[in-house]
Description:
Helices cover 68% and strands 0% of the residues. It is an all-alpha fold and 91 residues long. The two termini are 34 Å apart.
Amino acid sequence: MTTINKKYLLIIGGLLGILFSVYDSSVSYSGTAPLDDDFGIEIISWNFFLMKTLVYVLIGILVGLIISKLIKIFTNRNVQNKYSLLFKKPR
Length: 91
C-alpha cells in the first residue's frame, strides 16, 4: 500500500468522525423534542461539542490507520504465500 492510499484512509476517517459528530449533535435530543420543533443541530456547550468532535476525529483516524495496516499485512501475506512454493529450501 502506498503512502498516498494511507493518507486518504486517514483523511476519510477524520471526515467521517466530523460527520458523525454533527449527526450525533442533530439527533441527541430527538426523543424528547416537541413535535413542532424544526430539525437542526442543538449544541448545548461549544466546549463539549468541540471535545467530542476531536475525539470522534481521532477515533476515525485510528480506524483508518488500522485498516491501512490490515490491508498491508494481508497483501504481503498473499504475495508471500503465492510465491512460497518457488522459494522453498530443499531438505
